[in-house]
Design goal:
The complex is a heterodimer. By secondary structure, chain A is α/β, with parallel strands linked by helices. A six-stranded mixed β-sheet of chain A has the order 3-2-1-4-6-5. Chain A is globular. Chain A starts with 8 loop residues before the first strand and ends in a 6-residue tail after the last helix. Chain B has two helices and no strands. The chains are: A alpha/beta, B mainly alpha.
Chain lengths: 177, 51
């Protein structure tokens, strides 16, 4: 099953970055499964910012930065991603409004834009499964984490251009509602 | 809206970096200790799991 991630990249959502420190062994094991198929674990600048903002004091922030620099590949957020996010917002909210969900966050939009930009080369690992609409994304793998206090479900997502085009058509009034 | 689907498939990510699970685990646990020293109740609140 992990072969689908062979030589690909997985973007790690902020919730996962935070949870790594609650259950280090579970995530070390999961990341190792990705490493076995040469799948790179990565973040982007806004994920980094969202995680590092929880640091207490400069010394802790510096340690966060060092850890992220050494263990994760950071992908730059470029103008292409910004433009995609800008265009994706209304569609994403349209998907959300159908499901009566809250508005998309900036980081969620940027995450989805990265998935779109890199298409089948990039996946997203998250614990916040409701933030990623299956109207435009595929959930390709799920798993459970039992840390003794609670059970959480992680999901891995990728962009689906066919679903996207169909949803875009409906959104723009080109197809059936 | 104008997404250009063909162009999205041309973008490439950098090559793979080596992941060492033992090194990773060691660093996470060290940093976890720092975090708990600065705030012993840091992981008590389940709401903090999410961003």
């Amino acid at each position: 099953m992990m072969t689908m991630f062979q030589n690909k990249h997985v973007l790690v959502d902020t919730c996962v970055l935070s949870y790594i420190f609650r259950s280090p062994d579970i995530f070390a094991e999961l990341f190792n499964e990705f490493a076995k198929v040469k799948c790179n674990i990565c973040i982007h600048a806004l994920l980094r910012l969202e995680f590092v903002r929880s640091a207490i004091g400069k010394a802790e922030k510096d340690k966060f930065d060092k850890f992220l620099n050494e263990e994760f590949l950071t992908i730059p957020v470029d103008s292409i991603v910004y433009k995609m996010a800008d265009e994706l917002y209304p569609l994403y909210n349209y998907c959300g409004s159908v499901r009566n969900q809250r508005q998309i966050s900036v980081v969620d939009a940027i995450n989805a834009s990265f998935l779109k930009k890199y298409n089948d080369g990039l996946f997203l690992l998250t614990l916040d499964n409701s933030d990623y609409p299956l109207e435009i994304l595929d959930r390709v793998k799920v798993g459970a984490i039992d840390d003794g206090k609670q059970i959480l479900t992680w999901g891995i997502y990728r962009f689906n251009p066919v679903k996207f085009e169909e949803k875009m058509g409906r959104f723009e009034g080109r197809g059936r509602k | 809206m104008g997404f250009e689907m063909n162009k999205t498939q041309q973008y490439k990510l950098p090559s793979v970096r080596k992941f060492d699970s033992k090194r990773f685990l060691k660093k996470v646990k060290e940093l976890r200790e720092v975090m708990l020293t600065n705030d012993p109740k840091r992981f008590d609140d389940d709401d903090n799991v999410s961003k």
